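Minutes, project check-in
Item: structure for the 411-residue chain
Input as provided by the requester:
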Amino acid sequence: MERSFHYYGTYCAATLAGYDPEESLQIAYSAQLVDWCSKTFLTRIGGPLYAATTQLPIEMASARTDPVGLADITRIWASFHFLPYDLYAQVNKGGRRYRNKYRMICGPNGDLLVDTVTLARGKSLQATGLAMHVLADTWAHRYFAGTPSLVINNIDRYFVELLPADDARQATGGEPYVERPVRFRHNLKAADDLYAGIYTRTVYQPSENAVMNLGHGRAGHLPDYSFARYRYVPAWNDYEEILKDNPTEYYQAFCQMVYALGWLRGTHDAGSADGAGNTDGAFKTHTYDTRTVAPYEQHIRHMLQKRQLGEGACEDWHAFGRSLTGRDLPEFDLNAHVQEYLDAPAGAKDATFLGKFILAALAQKGMVVNRIYASGNPLAGRSIEYDANDFKGIRDFLPLVGYLGRGDEHD
């Protein structure tokens, strides 16, 4: 997803869920920070490198693709951007390596989503924002895996975009969409051409573990565009096509965020269209706060379907947030909280804005890697927590142990 949804959209969702403007800003900033908290950034501020939630292009260019390097890549992208849907999925073809990679395919409403949102409850607003980024990306990045894999993430030559038909055609009973073949190119400096249907993607690499085969790189940025509707054939689907309807799914993602944010805030447990409540108080999958969002549904759907990139989409969501709170949302600034972290004494860094985000990132990555390793899948590397001698790996870091054992939602 783009900044328009992760930053401005999350701000709107948090506001609708009952957070005040300052709380909503902290949640939105943390959701967007997931796309910027790289090892390069953490090195600059003196933070722990294990807390990286993304990799910059320059970092990816020099990334190792041996088992250790691949595990490092997978820990980042599977934990924060391509949350696996079913680590125990039944796979009736291929060997163990194929099954392990298949089980890393991202999708919404999986068990790991429950773990992600539950992990953030009672913790900081930074943890809440981080969880919302992960939740939103399960919708945008579904059908792709956060580990380099040609046999999972590659696509067939058949890739068509569905464009809305003109009003006259629809009025006469024609199909609501017309198909247009997508043309891909590899010029990373060229902007996607929405009108000509030309999009940039990664260069084909026949090596199974090439970094070019990470996530949805072979499909370009189409999965991140809220307006995109397309049909394509993924490498793992036995040459069966998949329809991806981003406007519909992004709306579901927004309604699920409002529900999840309300659940994290502890203000309501109901949220589905039929009013079914959460009788046991647990976070529920396939639950969407459509009632709260209903007064704004048409406006939100219009924004999601609008064919525009970058600042245009940001301004639309910004204006929506302004209409909800009466306040302008400041531009995302990666350096906004850096000085506070740098100036804090060693024993007080965890209480800063970035310190709270780092703790949330460590907890999320540790949880996801633990789940992957416990399932018998080695792709994210070894989780020492499950090894002998009762050694807990990153959970031996005292600040993280304290974080996991306390509730500090509004600290």
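Outcome recorded: The chain is about 45% helix and 10% strand.
No further action items on this chain.
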